[in-house]
Amino acid sequence: MRNSPSSQDLTQRNGSPGSEVPPLGESMRLLERARRVDASFLLRPGVLAGPDDSNPLPVFAERAAGAYLWDVDGNRYLDFVLGFGSVVLGHADPVVTEAVREELARGVSPTLHRSRQIELVETLVETIPGAEMALLLRSGSDACGAAVRLARAFTGRPWVLHSGYHGWHEWCAPRPGGLSPGVQDYVASFRYNDLAALDDALSQRPGGVACVFMLPVDTEIPDDGYLAAVRELAHRHGALFVLDDVRSCFRLAMGGAPEFFGVRADLVTLSKAMANGHPISAVVGRRDVLEATPRISVSSPFSRSGDGIAAALATIRAIRDRSAIDILWERGRQLVEGLRAAVARQRVAVDVEGLPPMPSQRFTHCDETDRKRAEDIFYAETRARGVLFHPSHHWFTCAAMSADDIRVAVDAAEAGYAAVRLGMAGDGERRGR
Predict the structure, then answer these.
(1) Structural domains of the chain, ranges and CATH numbers in brackets
(2) SS3 assignment, position 333
(3) Contact at 8 Å (CB) between 58 and 79?
(4) What is the predicted pLDDT for the residue at 20?
(5) Which among 251, 202, 231 has a CA at the least distance from the CA of 357?
């Protein structure tokens, strides 16, 4: 039976309210070592920070179990980042871990295909509304890149209109460095929840748009009927409708965004929670579109590795057997309601946004310096109290979280809001406001 820590327990482990950050000496030593040889650490000091964040942060995990992780300095955290949403059951779920262990003992990549690959594809086709075939890959970026190539090959058109973040492949890479000249010449973005803007973008490219490619939901929730209207608009212009469900699949509903929002897409990309953190992804959708696969370049020997397939099968079954999605929603509602009540009590400029299984928050100070200061205060305080919230990404619930865990998180967040209120008031006094 998992023991949930109290607020006092986490304070004793990770520092008293308003104290300095928990001891992070080993994390900092490892970070200095990593920066000499690991190029990924040139991007940012750790997953919890942007490139300009100089605050000491936990960077290296020693282990993770259930809703918690422990860093290399022995600090324990209640984890709402959860591998950026890839962990849905809880870290190191024993059923998934055992399934992977059994598969590893049989050989990871045995040259030939295995029957379990068919079993997983059949499971995905049965689970995602409108899916008739599936293509297995390794990462969310792989799946999104393959979906774009399929759309272009099937329609014979060059343009992709997209909304949201879809990974690091060239067609959608947010940073310009290293991109081939012209690789994004036939890619344009459109504003979410703005049908008129999308209609205009399609009309400006008559007969040229291969697909409308979008996140079904981000921090902004779709207006009633919006996704269905996007689908109808795309089809009216001869384009495919593609949903990037990598972040939200197996969180909002068993059938992902298509089931939750009641809209069928021509293609849907899946990953993250599909395998409780293990690497695997898929493109599912219409048979006639996926039958264009032989006409595109797409290949990955690791897409048929048994570990990812075993993890995905075990995860999907566990989500069903444990009513895990009901738990995600219940814990998420408890979290969102608690946060909003704490914001009101502390009178801070914060909007709590998104759907309960994957909420987020946004400080709404008009002045950018004030906003950054508020964020720094809040996240330092919640980390000191043993709760990991990401400062610029969704937060996520998992099926291993208890109601007590959420109460701990809300208490930590309220302490963070109180620290913001006091800290910002002090800043104002020092500036003569």
Answers:
(1) 22-46+73-77 (no CATH), 94-321 (3.40.640.10)
(2) helix
(3) no
(4) 58
(5) 251
Interatomic CA distance for residues 140 and 144, integer angstroms: 6
Residues 60, 72: Cα–Cα separation, whole Å: 6
Residue 284 CA, chain-centre distance (Å), reads 19
The pTM is what?
0.91
SS3 145: helix
Q: Among 5, 13, 130, 131, which Cα is nearest to 73's?
A: 13
Quick check: 173 and 223 in contact, CB under 8 A? no
Residue whose entry in the numeric block shows the structure tokens 């607020």: 7
DSSP, collapsed to helix, strand or coil, labels residue 419 as helix
Contact 409, 7 (CB under 8 A): no
Least confident range from 45-49, 155-159, 164-168, 294-298: namely 45-49
Band (pLDDT 50/70/90 cuts) for residue 55 is low
Residue listed under structure tokens 């003992």: 105
Residue 42 — very low, low, confident or very high, per pLDDT cuts 50/70/90?
confident
Is 162 within 8 Å of 239 (Cβ atoms)?
no
